[in-house]
């Protein structure tokens, strides 16, 4: 399915913030709201901001209705998930994306929002894997915030990285897909699942065990998905854990073992994930991945909608 380009934001546009997963308060996101307003945007808060149903930002029904209202509102030009956590997959099948397909707008978030990015990609829509209001506006998140601004406002987007000893050299072109490794595994076989063939896949995760990362790579390999990629970008796997009996392989070694011999470029240590330098990634956009002895680059095709 052809990916639909989304109009760039303009100063004066209205954007919305909703809670799709874990609960969040207005105080939690006030710096993010201030930053968006400093970009010249008008910010509307959903009914889920400040709501709670134990862990979640309101009941499934409230989170569904809140997000649906913003999806259908033609005055809202972009929607931000306030934070991640867990809960997005609980409401995905109850949402109607027909209005969004007719009049696309940016959807922004990462971590648990990976399932939503994949769902939108399966519908032929771009979205932005990027920082969220809970994390925005901090002194050490400036680069993450700036790249999100670039993506939202339709500016050219390209990243250059230093050399990494375990990188696999090569050049490839393909649509960018990916996000949180465990979420990608959890949506296999569902309506949110994606086609990996010819795609450039980026991955990140936090707080996982090494053996579980290996288990997911084994699963993806057995599904025939790793073999079909055009390229692979390994982001930040933060706060990794090990078992009492050490697993004996780190993430880089796991990736190289399961992707050996496929012939596509692999870039390690990309700044995306649960870190302050979480660069914005346009999911569904065609990118060029180039990995050389001097370093790596990821360049997004420049489109004007």
Automatic annotation (TrEMBL):
Pfam families: Peptidase_S66, Peptidase_S66C. Residues 15-130 form the LD-carboxypeptidase N-terminal domain. The keyword Hydrolase applies. Residues 174-289 form the LD-carboxypeptidase C-terminal domain. Belongs to the peptidase S66 family. This is LD-carboxypeptidase. Keywords: Carboxypeptidase, Hydrolase, Protease, Serine protease.
């Amino acid at each position: 399915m052809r990916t639909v380009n989304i109009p760039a934001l303009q100063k004066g546009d209205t954007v919305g913030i909703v809670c799709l997963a874990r609960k969040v308060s207005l105080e939690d996101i006030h710096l993010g709201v201030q930053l968006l307003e400093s970009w010249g945007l008008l910010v509307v808060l959903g009914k889920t901001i400040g709501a709670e149903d134990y862990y979640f930002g309101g009941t499934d029904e409230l989170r569904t209705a809140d997000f649906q209202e913003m999806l259908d509102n033609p005055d809202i030009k972009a929607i931000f998930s306030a934070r991640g956590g867990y809960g997005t997959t609980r409401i995905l099948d109850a949402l109607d994306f027909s209005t969004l397909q007719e009049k696309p707008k940016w959807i922004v978030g990462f971590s648990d929002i990976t399932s939503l990015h994949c769902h939108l990609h399966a519908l032929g829509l771009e979205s932005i894997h990027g920082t969220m209001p809970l994390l925005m506006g901090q002194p050490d998140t400036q680069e993450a915030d700036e790249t999100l601004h670039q993506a939202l406002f339709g500016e050219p987007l390209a990243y250059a990285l230093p050399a990494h000893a375990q990188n696999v050299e090569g050049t490839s072109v393909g649509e960018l897909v990916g996000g949180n490794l465990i979420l990608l595994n959890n949506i296999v076989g569902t309506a949110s699942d994606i086609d990996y063939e010819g795609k450039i896949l980026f991955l990140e995760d936090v707080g996982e065990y090494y053996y579980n990362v290996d288990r997911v790579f084994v699963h993806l390999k057995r599904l025939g998905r790793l073999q079909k990629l055009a390229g692979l970008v390994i982001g930040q796997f933060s706060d990794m854990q090990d078992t009492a009996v050490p697993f004996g392989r780190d993430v880089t070694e796991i990736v190289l073992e399961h992707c050996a011999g496929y012939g596509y470029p692999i870039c390690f240590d990309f700044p995306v994930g649960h870190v302050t330098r979480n660069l914005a990634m346009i999911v569904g956009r065609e990118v060029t991945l180039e990995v050389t002895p001097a370093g790596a680059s990821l360049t997004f095709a420049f489109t004007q909608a």
